[in-house]
Specification:
alpha/beta; OB fold (Dihydrolipoamide Acetyltransferase, E2P); Rossmann fold; 5-stranded mixed β-barrel; 5-stranded parallel beta sheet; Exonuc_VII_lsu_C; Exonuc_VII_L; exonuclease; cytoplasm
């Protein structure tokens, strides 16, 4: 590897670099010196942006690095990673210059350590999930009382004895029917599906248990078969899947109506033991007795309460008459009080009027004198105003609006009679009064266009 980078050639480097120039130089150095490579780690802080780009952190026990997978690459990924997924990414090492963050630019992603069988498992699971066969709402509840149980497993299966022992202990009244089928090897999935179909055709069981003991993914592969999964999904009888150990998951577990961690647990989940129902029955009986007793006591109390409230019609009428008499007395008192107040106010006003009553004779003499003075003043003022009037008439004739109107002008008034002088006071679709030289008219404006000259 060439350790002398042209990007950071000491001879070509300036004495002082900006942050942007430094980050760009480091980014080019990383892209040139580190080739495209595979990196493994655990997904953390995964985000799918609105643009379709993926942003996440790839980490292991000792370190972490940010990563980005752009939309053009992410759309070809076989799966969308989630928090905690172990993955391997094919990426280039670079630097996001604006923030100075070292990051991976991912071109491809795959699950870490996933073999062919597990990839097939994921593809089958995704197909069934897309069809809604794994949805929780389509799963049916188990019957409360089980009379006949169907076992679909191998007669030589190690788990068969444990299942039978558990069923005999918990449900001794239930009949067990075995539908034999191999649980591993070539053709096992088809035979398991045939046994399941046979049980449905006979319709003699209340619930079916599909079970086998633990093993490797190859040993349990028959229970990952797509045909078997569809047969389970379309079963008319509820199916319990008890395959492998607690950490083992198969396609049959996801499709079945109920998944049990082990075959023995499947037998325990098939139904409640007799002791449980006897206990429930006793508890229900006690609750029913307490409920009836409580309701009886409540009705007794209600009857006593109604009995105390019950009165005869005559007593009710007397009570209403007393109430009516009380309101009548209160009304009379209120009106008497208000009448007394009005009388007092009237007396007070009469007294004040008498005190303020004027002397008519003296006022008459003063009025006569004022009348004479007023007549003289009016005569003088009349003479003066007549002279002024003649002068104003001459001026008014010169300023008479009629003369202006006769020259072709008009006076515009609003509905209140106010003269309008500015276009700003005009409004469209409103009636206005127009005075002309030879009459008047009323008009409505269609539009207003203000023009300043």
């Amino acid at each position: 590897m060439n350790t002398e980078s042209p990007v950071l050639n000491r001879a070509a480097m300036p004495s002082v670099m900006s942050v942007s120039a430094l980050n760009n130089a480091v980014a080019q150095l990383l892209e040139r010196q580190i080739p495209l490579l595979w990196v493994s780690g655990e997904i953390s802080n995964f985000t799918r942006a609105a643009s379709g780009h993926w942003y996440f952190t790839l980490k292991d026990a000792g370190a972490q690095v940010r990563a980005v997978m752009f939309r053009g690459r992410a759309m070809y990924a076989e799966f969308q990673p989630r928090e905690g997924d172990k993955v391997e990414v094919r990426a280039t090492v670079g630097l996001y210059a604006p923030r100075g963050d070292y990051q991976l630019t991912v071109e491809a992603i795959r699950r870490a350590g996933v073999g062919h069988l597990y990839e097939s498992f994921l593809r089958i699971k995704a197909t069934l999930e897309a069809e809604g066969l794994l949805a929780a709402e389509r799963k049916r509840p188990l019957p409360a009382f089980v009379k006949r149980i169907g076992l679909i497993t191998s007669p030589q299966a190690a788990a068969l004895r444990d299942v039978l022992t558990t069923l005999k202990r918990r449900l001794p009244h239930a009949e067990v029917i075995l539908y034999p089928a191999p649980v591993q090897g070539e053709g096992a999935a088809a035979k398991l599906a045939l046994a399941l179909s046979t049980a449905n055709d006979r319709a003699e069981c209340d619930v079916l248990i599909l079970c086998r003991g633990g093993g490797s993914i190859e040993d349990l592969w028959a229970f990952n078969d797509e045909m078997l999964a569809r047969t389970i999904a379309h079963s008319d009888i509820p199916v319990i899947s008890g395959v492998g150990h607690e950490t083992d998951f198969t396609i049959a577990d996801f499709v079945a109506d109920l998944r049990a961690p082990t075959p023995t647990a499947a037998a325990e989940l098939t139904g409640q033991p007799c002791e449980h129902w006897l206990t429930q029955l006793n508890q229900q009986q006690e609750r029913l007795q307490r409920s009836w007793q409580r309701r009886f006591q409540q009705h007794q109390q209600t009857l006593d309460y109604l009995n105390r409230r019950l009165i005869s019609p005559q007593a009710a009428i007397r009570q209403q008459q007393q109430t009516l008499q009380q309101w009548e007395n209160r009304l009379k008192q209120v009106w008497q009080y208000r009448l007394h107040q009005r009388q007092q106010a009237l007396t007070l006003l009469q007294q004040r009027w008498q005190a303020q009553r004027p002397d008519i004779r003296q006022a008459g003499q003063q009025l006569q004198q004022l009348q004479q003075r007023l007549q003289r003043a009016q005569f003088q003022q009349h003479q003066q105003r007549q002279t002024s009037l003649q002068q104003w008439q001459a001026q008014l004739e010169a300023l008479n609006p009629q003369r202006t109107l006769e020259r072709g002008y008009a006076i515009l008034r609003d509905q209140q009679g106010r003269i309008l002088r500015s276009p700003a006071a005009l409004k469209p679709h409103q009636a206005y009064h127009i005075q002309l030289a030879e009459g008047s008219a009323t008009a409505e404006l269609a539009s207003v266009q203000a023009t300043l000259e």
